[in-house]
Amino acid sequence: FFFFFKQKTAYEISACLVGSEMCIRDSLYIVQAKETPQKYLTETLSLKTQHQKLIHSIFLTNNQKYVVSGSQDRVVAYNREKDLSVDLVLQPQYQVKGVVGTSDSQYAVYGTDEPAIRILNIESKQEVLVEKINSTNEIIAITTSRDNKYIITAQKGGNIQVWSWNQSLNSLKLEYEIISQDYILSTSFTISQDNKYLVAAQEKDLKVWDLSTGSFLFEIKNAHAGRIFTVAISSDNTKIFTGSADGYINMWNMSRRYKVIAYYSQNDKAYSLALTSNNRYLIYIQGDYENSFLGIYDLSDQKQIQKEYFNINLFNLFLSRDNKHLVTSNQDNVITLYEPSLEQLKEDIQQTPDAVDNKYSLSA
To answer: With contact defined as beta carbons under 8 Å apart, do 294 and 285 qualify?
Structure first.
């Protein structure tokens, strides 16, 4: 069963929520999701990869030339201009714990369990920087800011480190470290498009910091009943989206720190999600241990417009910045590329964030 929950008043906030006095319980009504046969995405390429371990990271370079995937055993780059032919296979001595691309399309940045940050030039196929971290805890997540100024790592145990990257000097400098008061095994995070906020999900909690200063801004305790797998922030910094093992995808009002909408899929985990640049469409993966589906939710009209089922688990998705390409990977390490196939979706993507976001103005 699939249901949408829409807020009518306000959300019950935990007493530990920083900066908010709101403690009013939601009044929710339920709208059953309607199936639609129309497809908004068209599959263009699919490839069985060389990974021996499960793919945990995928991305498409901004110049759209390479698809890069990472698993514990290797980093692989595929040339999209040559039908995803393998262009690079890197098998480091240490386990790979996350791979992300830089906005200039030149580098793949990944963490290892030594622990260390490693930077690979995709075109030259050479590692250009290795920064070993003075810690006994391995890196479990890594990301970069859109201006390539910062590299952020999360370690097993919960500590988060923010590094400044000087490309001209080819060096990293630790700017600050966020020390976790609890031992945390799971961290997923993202950075706002304007590089202002660091948003992290640690276990069941949602936390936000000022990226440049490291100042803690707020926390939503027990944002989900299960571990949070994925997090995203809208381009206008007004909403945060979280997906969890509890089957919910939640949308949070960032300024008031309460839940606006929750999407629930019974017995399914929300593994991955992405938001289009106009903040209108949420693309997501949910599934159990045997089946999954790729869905698109129209945030403006508040309805699901696509749900495609697979008899295999999908785990990762990546949406290109121009919203023209979507990449997914599944439990058999098959990478698939999609493109929008409906003109309305392509046209809507060209709208400005304000043009669609006015429908989300909220009253107290």
So the answer is: yes
Q: Which residues contact 314 (CB under 8 A, 6 or more apart)?
A: 271, 272, 285, 287, 292, 293, 294, 328, 329, 330, 331
Q: What pTM was computed for the model? A: 0.83
Q: Give the integer Cα–Cα distance in Å for 145 and 195.
A: 6
Beta bridge partners of 191: 198
The confidence score (pLDDT) of residue 362 equals 24
Q: Decide: 265 and 2 in contact? Cβ < 8 Å.
A: yes
Residue 184 DSSP class:
B
Q: Are 254 and 269 in contact (CB under 8 A)?
A: no
Altogether, the residues listed in the chain come to a count of: 364
- CA dihedral of residues 185, 2, 266, 334 (deg, nearest 10): -60
Q: What is the dihedral of CA 89, 103, 333, 339, to 10 degrees?
A: -130
Distance CA 140, CA 163 (A): 16
List, for residues 66-100, the tens digit of each pLDDT value: 999 999 999 999 999 898 899 999 998 999 999 99
Per cent of the chain over pLDDT 70 is 83
Query: How many CB atoms are closer than 10 A to CB 63?
Result: 10
Beta bridge partners of 80: none
Q: Is the peptide bond before 115 cis (omega within 30 degrees of 0)?
A: yes
pLDDT in tens, 227-256: 999 999 999 999 999 999 999 999 999 988
> Do residues 112 and 139 lie in contact, with contact meaning Cβ atoms separated by under 8 Å?
yes
